[in-house]
Amino acid sequence: MSAVMQTVSENLVFVLQFLGLVVLMFLIAYAVEKAVKRKRGDSERVLATRKIVMIGVFSAMAAVLMVLEFPVPFAPSFYGLDFSELPALIGAFAYGPVAGVMIEFCKIVIKIFLKPSSTAFVGELANFVIACVLVLPASVIYLVKKTRRNAIIGTVVGTLLMAVFGTAFNAVYLIPKFAQLYGMPLDSIIAMGTAINPSIHDITGLVVLCVAPLNLLKGGLVSLITVLIYKKLSPVLKAAAKKEK
User: Fold this and answer.
1) How many CA atoms lie within 13 A of 25 on its CB side?
2) Residue 183: which region, alpha, beta or left (left: phi > 0; alpha: psi -120 to 50)?
3) C-alpha dihedral over 224, 159, 124, 52, to 10 degrees?
4) TM spans, by residue (predicted)?
């Protein structure tokens, strides 16, 4: 009975930590977006009704893309490549950083209904936080001055931060938490990495040789596609948003 209570307690703490990170990301995005809009003299509300409608549309698209995950040859099976950040980044460029964070959170909620977690929700937490590290700086830089140059700078900065933060976050928190909640010894997780790459002997090797390349690949592809198609989509997105007023 005590073991069951301990498991429930650990999961509850994890859920509260997850929600705390969601609130933190939202508050950071809201404060930055509000400050930039105030400096520009933009009186539009951060969360206008038309934005909320479009956030729902982009969240659904992102959730479907999150389910369509592809394995990568250089990482264990619990890591995969998906393009769910693409709708979030496009939505953040169109409607602001707060919209990007909300798309990322709603995406996770919808995805859980479409496909239950196979990683004790650690994978969902990782996806949300690391995605926000890409989407937030990229959309803030673009919000300051909406030019193609700033879009490129923003996505490059976001991708690099995503790779660095994602690598450290996996090593310090996510992988140990996954081992704890999933009931899998840490050595077994490292061994899965060693089976793919003999150079992996510890958690540092696992994140440097698996997580970092994955985040660079994912961030780079999502950023490239966004930069290539956003300007063409922008008039359509603005027209769609106006119809929802």
Assistant:
1) 26
2) left
3) -60
4) 12-32, 52-72, 125-144, 150-174, 206-230
- What is the distance in angstroms between the CA of the first residue and the CA of the last residue of the chain? 54
Dihedral sign for Cα 214, 162, 16, 89, please: negative
| 17-41 mean pLDDT | 87
pLDDT in tens, 30-55: 999 989 888 877 767 777 777 888 99
What tokens were used for 67? 């389910």
Report the alpha-carbon distance of residue 133 to residue 174 in Å, rounded: 15
- Helices then strands, each counted (H, E), the chain: 10, 2
Instruction: Kindly state the DSSP code that residue 118 receives in the 8-state scheme.
Output: S
The sign of the torsion formed by the CA atoms of 32, 86, 74, 213 equals negative
Q: What is the CA radius of gyration of the chain?
A: 19
Over residues 135-185, the pLDDT tens digits come to 999 999 999 989 999 999 999 999 999 999 999 999 998 888 888 877 788
Q: Which two tokens stand for residue 193?
A: 């990495």
DSSP 158-221: HHHHHHHHHHHHIIIIIHHHHHHHHT--HHHHHHHHHHH-TT--SHHHHIIIIIHHHHHHHHHH
The residue whose two tokens read 């990683």 is 119
